[in-house]
What we know:
Elements: E1 8-11, H1 13-17, H2 27-39, E2 44-49, H3 62-68, E3 76-80, H4 84-90, E4 97-103, H5 106-113, H6 117-133, E5 137-143, H7 156-168, E6 173-178, H8 185-196, E7 204-208, H9 215-225, E8 229-232, H10 252-261, H11 270-283, H12 291-301
Parallel strand pairs: 1-2, 1-8, 2-3, 3-4, 4-5, 5-6, 6-7, 7-8
Helix pairs in contact: 2-3, 2-11, 7-8, 8-9, 10-11, 11-12
3-hydroxy-3-methylglutaryl-coenzyme A (HMG) is lined by residues 16, 19, 49-52, 55-56, 80, 82-83, 85-86, 101, 112-114, 141, 143, 177, 179, 207, 209, 240-241.
Protein name: hydroxymethylglutaryl-CoA lyase
GO molecular function, one term: metal ion binding
Keywords: Lyase, Metal-binding
Amino acid sequence: MALPTHVTLVDVGPRDGLQNEKQPVSTAHKAQLVALLQEAGLKEIEVTSFVSPKWVPQMADNADVMAAIARRPGVRYSVLTPNMKGFEAALPTQPDEIVVFAAASEAFSQKNINCSIAESIERFAPVVAAAHEAGIKVRGALSCALGCPYQGEVSADEVERVVQLMKSIGVDHMGVADTIGVGTPRKVQAAMERALKHYPLVEVSGHFHDTYGQALSNIYACLELGVHTFDASVAGLGGCPYAKGATGNVATEDVVFMLNGLGIDTGIDLDRLVDAGAFISGVLERAPVSRVARAILAKRAG
Ligand SMILES: CC(C)(COP(=O)([O-])OP(=O)([O-])OC[C@H]1O[C@@H](n2cnc3c(N)ncnc32)[C@H](O)[C@@H]1OP(=O)([O-])[O-])[C@@H](O)C(=O)NCCC(=O)NCCSC(=O)C[C@@](C)(O)CC(=O)[O-]
């Protein structure tokens, strides 16, 4: 199959990127990050999550962040909502999209959201129905689709089983997530193909952590299947609080550089994206993880 000519990138940096940061990041800095991402041309931004502040303190200012962002027409703002309590808190903040997140492994489901896979689907069902009632699209994220920090191997059958469960409750979009970055291209294609059995190409995306340095290869493997939507995190921020040692998502800068080289349009201005990454890295007092960002910043510094 010919590679797609356009790719949509969802920057999950403000949520996935920052959720695991130990040092507090102010609401104003989070809103500024969103502003810089949209200036760089991002059209989809995952802003925050409506989860328990005891479990994930960094996202406790979820509603304040949603109120603080300066929305631009044409940009979609999404938030995570694991249950009705989260959805009810998120609804007045007017997200364009919500994300429910399940896992392909029982052990991760328990650690991450404190319930079994079956229970998680029961919890999501009313959330999906209420979101649709409110005219809000529902994205599903499927954690540990390529491996689990507790269970180890995860099979394509296990992935497909949960994809089907999510589909059965009306989840509109399926994000296949490599939470701990252990996937390699052929395994990623096998998992994606299971999602594509139940969702059209336009409603399947990849979410790759770069822990083992495989994320760009895995994205390329998805492009070969025609998949054209990916999550990425500016500066390579992040890591999941329930996946020890897992590093951030693939850096948005690195994905854009690769796609530019392939002649695939993203609508994103790489230089401005590097500015956004440099900004949040400055707030966090460290260099961006993105190798492309480091190279461009070094070149700029002369
Ligand atoms: C899912 C829950 C909330 C269940 O939490 P629980 O403890 O099982 O829920 P509960 O219903 O028993 O409630 C316990 C307490 O939590 C409160 N509570 C209950 N729900 C909410 C809510 N929505 N917002 C705020 N508070 C909430 C509730 O009010 C109560 O408060 P208390 O009476 O003790 O004061 C909890 O386990 C949790 O917050 N977990 C954190 C999950 C999380 O944020 N994980 C990271 C994001 S997922 C991810 O990063 C993976 C992804 C998507 O990027 C893809 C990938 O790479 O894999």
